[in-house]
Amino acid sequence: MNTSALRPAVPLLVLIIAGCAVAAIGNGVRTSFGLFTLPMTADLGLSREGWGMAMAIQNLAWGIAQPFAGAYADRVGTGRTIAIGAAIYALGVVLMTISPNASIMAVTAGIITGVGIAISSFSVVMAAFGRAVPPEKRSLIFGVATAASSFGQFAFAPISQGFINAFGWQSALLYLGMALLLIIPLSYALRGRTENPIGQADLPFMETLAKAWGHGSYRLLVIGFFVCGFHLAFINVHMPAYLVQCGLSPATGSWTIAIIGLFNIVGSLLAGYLGGRLPKQILLATIYFLRALAIGLFLLFPVSELTAYTFAAAMGVLWLSTVPLTAGLVAMFFGARYLGMLYGIAFLSHQIGSFVGVWLGGYVFDMTGSYSLVWYLGIMLGLASAAMHLPINERAAPSFALKPA
């Protein structure tokens, strides 16, 4: 029996196409939320911190739910898991339209939407890919899935802005909620679960986590992933408003988010390709260092459409390129059996970073009228994460090695 990759319920190409479509829709809707910052805060009288807190709670709820969603998908199947998540995600987005204040918004846009994102996210899609794709091709396929999610960001940003301009933010959210329901039929192609390899124990959740956390390289990977979430969430939610503050139009903000998504298609595919040929930890260290450099250069020059789009292109190449490399390392450490759960733990760290980035951006803006302090913190964190990834050892965790049959 081949324990590294199991035959999927549908042809592999169909599974990959369906998974990529799920990733594109789910990520496309989520990354459009920053475009709603100005119209929703203006109409509802929310402070920038109040809106930022709802988005921060969304990222934190996503992160907390992700390991459990991954474990559930590992045990009962990815298709069923993703379908349930899509329904919850759509419900949360629709309920945002009738959320009159920051407290209710924290529940609808924050908790409900965040949990729905976790259960239907491309992290769960990767669990399906991880069990169906041979180990030597996983980094590449993870890169393809990440690129698909980035295409969703590129496609949904101008579409969402067009809906807001034409119909208002409430109707725009309803249309996005309807789009999320398309994930449910697509999830059928992802049905199935990861079987336990011959000779390896079927470990309980807490025992699996304890053994994984004892692997030093995994600890460094998890802690360093915090910085990725900090960068992405802060820029995704606050960048459009920052550009308007600098005198540019809301359309510039939407195209900036779209350009990030477009160039991340290239970055994700390149990371997935290189991850099968070069040490993944060195690639990750390079990505975090280049992010810090890109933010520093962006702050050196006066903000204009040219600098905004150039920064977006640079960050786009580096945006989610961490994901196939991080997922690839987790799969290398522990195998495909626990990929959904243990990548979910790493992603929890990512989402704690997202919570801090989104909330701190709103708080600092309300206190100082500027985002400058958060930009500078992003540079320092990028350099710290680059240094943290260098000692990672690209080898399997001994406690997860196959036992003799």
UniProtKB/TrEMBL annotation:
Pfam families linked: MFS_1
Residue ranges of domain Major facilitator superfamily (MFS) profile in the record: 12-396
UniProt key word Endoplasmic reticulum: no
GO molecular function, one term: transmembrane transporter activity
Spans through the membrane: 12-30, 50-69, 81-98, 104-128, 140-160, 172-190, 220-243, 255-275, 282-303, 309-334, 341-361, 373-392
Name assigned to this protein: MFS transporter
Gene3D superfamilies, per database record: MFS general substrate transporter like domains (1.20.1250.20)
Source organism: Devosia litorisediminis
Top-level taxon of the source organism: Bacteria
InterPro entries noted in UniProt: MFS, MFS_dom, MFS_trans_sf, Proton-linked_MCT
The entry's keywords: Membrane, Transmembrane, Transmembrane helix
